[in-house]
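Model the whole thing, not chain by chain.
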Amino acid sequence: MKKRVLISDIAKALGISVTTVSFILNDKAKEKRISDAMTKRVLDYVKKVGYKPNQLAKSLRTGQTKILGLLVEDIANPFFSNVAKYIERQAYDAGYHIIYCSMNNDGQKAKELIQMFMDRQVDGFIITPSEGLEDTIANIRQNNIPVVLFDRYIPTVDTHYVVSDNKKGAYEATKHLLENENKRVGLISLYSNQTQMRDRLEGYMQAMDEFQLQSYIKKLQLGAPEQDAKDQILEFIVDNKMDAVLFSTNYLAVSGLKALKEHRIPLPRMAAFDEHTLFKLHDPSITVVSQNIEQLTKELIQTLVADIAGRSKELRKITIPCELIIRESSIVTLPEQIS
Amino acid sequence: MKKRVLISDIAKALGISVTTVSFILNDKAKEKRISDAMTKRVLDYVKKVGYKPNQLAKSLRTGQTKILGLLVEDIANPFFSNVAKYIERQAYDAGYHIIYCSMNNDGQKAKELIQMFMDRQVDGFIITPSEGLEDTIANIRQNNIPVVLFDRYIPTVDTHYVVSDNKKGAYEATKHLLENENKRVGLISLYSNQTQMRDRLEGYMQAMDEFQLQSYIKKLQLGAPEQDAKDQILEFIVDNKMDAVLFSTNYLAVSGLKALKEHRIPLPRMAAFDEHTLFKLHDPSITVVSQNIEQLTKELIQTLVADIAGRSKELRKITIPCELIIRESSIVTLPEQIS
DNA sequence: AAAAATTAGCAAATCGTTTAATTAATGCTA
DNA sequence: TAGCATTAATTAAACGATTTGCTAATTTTT
């Protein structure tokens, strides 16, 4: 194991002070009037011995870790794993690394992790806030650490956030379903006050009201066993003889599809929130309200990095349009309807 | 913004030295003969003011960061995002945090990131090694940093690794396909010398040899545009009139399914490596060789943590069995075969 | 030519911990 | 009672960087 070379080793080898070396390495040669000759000499030697600063020492001194904390609901959900991928890429380009965790609806763990990330002095937070996290997030702000909320926000806590235009997305999906001559159009959602769920419900309502039709809304318990979800979705669709259904998350739609397939019940017309590989390939392929992950994460990182750098004091509350991707599930003539 | 409380603040407030406080906080009170009364006094006060040590300072002094570096091929691939989820959970239980990145077949980025993670003094690495990383990984070992390879390993570099029994998995899947009276059974794989690909090929071969049948092997370029993959898979299946096909990765199978669907060509019997939500719900549902992610990650973290702790000097080379999950795609009588 | 200003670089403090070495007080043995 | 252990705590030196002031040498100004 070869020993790491330190800044003091360089100074000693060249017969100069560590200060000079440090200034040069931090691009302060000009500002601190270090001669060009000296600068070149140091830089050459640094390259030769392959010196890399110890980030821990650097961070301890400067207070900057160049690490961002990412807290998502569930990293294994394709929506979030895609988000994680883009975020890592964007953060890397901006010189940051990501430390992540899944919260899995465990409020206690979420709180602990936020505290732990704060103890690790992360430069900023990216959070998909679950309910009950208001205080914790307010606490982060009080400690003056930049935070950007994502996917949903907390109305009572004033922070940056980047979300999709869920209301409009739900409105357009519902309207699309209604325009295909479906009368009984339902919404399958969650017992949740999170903004994205609230907005999707509002969008659905707006469309239903516009068409002056009765609404059918089924809410499921957050984090309930999948079997319960499947049973309830099935019951809702069958008992109400739904013509069409909008699912407010991709995993609810997946549960619905599983339930229907298991009982060999023909699909109602349907659409779902959030893209999923399954949806393109399912037979029939599934219409979705797709969030623009690339743009969302871009704005996200830009906002966070700008805040960390101390630029732009005012809060950014960003809403990105969704895209309705129409596939077979919302328009096909189903098999038994042929006859 | 309330100021962080430091160990020196505690010492000052209680009129004692920082050493005493530090010993007590690090559970060395007994060993260092600190009186019980003092221990209790300090612990009570620490709890009262909610002191949390600055991890940076701690890490700088001890050399332990309690951070693990995770480098995977693509975090958005459902196999790896599941791995990421389990790893984070297991690591958390062991007191570690995860810093991750996707390498996306970019060897240069992989090297840079490994170097950066080393500069950050990660306590250990978890890597799915791509080709060309031999030297870099050997370099990590030379710096005495624990590494566990995952999903595949590098035969020429002696490290811990945890992989699935790919050969047996491929053998059983192929045999299963052969036993369903298919004569022309092909393998769709990648131009890659990675061990998992090599083993899957070997497993396929073994089964084909056992049945004394001609083998059909199509390899695709790693990281090629999906359209190319789709075209080539289609051509392979159609031109060779394949009865059945084994896909060596889940995303190859997804590409294949897309291509067949787009051209409305009936599916051959098929099986694929690695689970995917799509596969359970596809019509027909897809038979898979499933890796036991929970067990893989458990062994992985155990191995890594044990090495970091300095226990167990010898290298652990672990192979976990795969499970063949038989679904419709490998056994159903297809529509056009009814007539 | 003395005073002022600029240039080029350095010593030492600092970030917040851990830990090796030391000390002062007390109890025990001979 | 002098000498030795033991106990309970302290002092000060790390860890490896950044940064605030300072100094000495040179140049410019008056």
